[in-house]
Amino acid sequence: MNFAKKILLALAVIAILTLPFLAVTKAQAIIDWWKLRNYTAPAAVSSLAQQDTMTPLATHIFYVNHPDIESNVARFRQDCTVAEQAIVLGCYHSDQDGIYIYEVTNAQLDGVEQVTAAHEMLHGAYDRLSTKERNYIDGLLENYYKSGLKDQSVIDEINLYKQTEPNDVVNEMHSVFGTEVANLPAPLESYYRRYFTNRSVITTFASNYETEFTSRQSELNGTSTQLNTLRTQIDNEEDSLNSQLSQINTDKTTLDSERSSGQTAAYNAGIANYNHEVNVYNNALEVLKNDIAMYNQLVNSYNSLASELAALEKSIDTRVVPQAAP
Asked: Which residue range forms the structural domain that includes residue 131?
């Protein structure tokens, strides 16, 4: 076989080996075209893509899935069917079959929808990776998880996925790291640039709304510690005042007895000490009143913070609550 024939045969083999990949790629393009042929992204959907700085590729993947932003919990949970008592804010149906996002209207949690949109789009992007590229990206994600990840909240999140979605942990890492971890190794940063022109916008969204929860929880913990300390202090002050009052009453009985029996010298000698005891008691009583007032103020602060935190949690609580029997 001469050199020219060898080249032709090699090219023929390459062409034959490439055909399945081209067929798959072409099929995906046709499916995408079909899904987008009459589709115009609603304003809220296109706004999410813009706010997330999605690239044309990411926006394409996002739109192919016809994202639906749902405010009704019951309808949202029909589309996102996970455990009834789990809080979920979005979901992606595999094979590019839909993205669903829960509408969060609490202004303090601005960013939840944006992060959810980016997270679910990345699931769609992961679905489209070739086997070779997915293996490469999986390796980068797992290496970072094992040796680079320091954020405990993200570690906890991945550990939860290990329990709830053990077969999709790396897939979830792909979405979580891309939307919640501000600084990633250079190869991963380079990879995510195909989907976002400014990924830091998304991680800032995630950090900001997480802070709304963590800052209040931290304040609650600190206030709870203050309350426990002050409660102990008040209890001790009350015990001391009761003891002082008992001594004052005993001394008063003695003074009254001395005066009524004509023991003037003894009576006069005890008056100064008695008056001192009363003054000490009254001063301690004022301290107690102030501490009780401070305690009540802290209780009000604690209850206010707890109400704020409960309101935030309610804003994203998509759990299905069983209806009571009539």
From this structure: 35-198
Going by C-alpha positions, the residue among 216, 242, 224, 241 that lies closest to residue 295 is: 224
**pLDDT, tens only, 264-283:** 999 999 999 999 999 999 99
Order the strands of the 90-92 sheet from edge to edge: 68-70, 99-102, 90-92
Q: Same domain for 250 and 135?
A: no
SS3 of residue 101 by DSSP = strand
Q: Could you tell me if 84 and 180 lie in one domain? A: yes
Work out the pLDDT band at 250, boundaries 50, 70, 90. Answer: very high
pLDDT above 80 (res 57): yes
Q: Which of 180, 207, 178, 181 is nearest to 195 (CA)?
A: 178
Residue 118 lies in a domain: yes
End-to-end CA distance of the chain: 87
Burial 253-266 (b: 16+ CB within 10 A, else e): eebeebeeeeeeee
pLDDT attached to residue 86: 63
From residue 7, give the alpha-carbon distance in Å to each of 14, 18, 21, 22, 92. Answer: 10, 16, 22, 21, 46
In the chain, which ranges are E strands? 68-70, 90-92, 99-102
Any domain includes 189:
yes
Length of the chain: 326
Please give the Cα distance from 301 to 223 (Å, whole number).
8
Distance of CA 158 to the CA centre of its chain: 13
* Domain CATH code at residue 275: 1.10.287
Q: Residues 184, 222: one domain?
A: no
Report, in this order, helix, strand and coil percent for the chain, each rounded to 5.
75, 5, 20
pLDDT 10s digits, 293-315: 999 999 999 999 999 999 999 99
Pairing of strands 99-102, 68-70: parallel
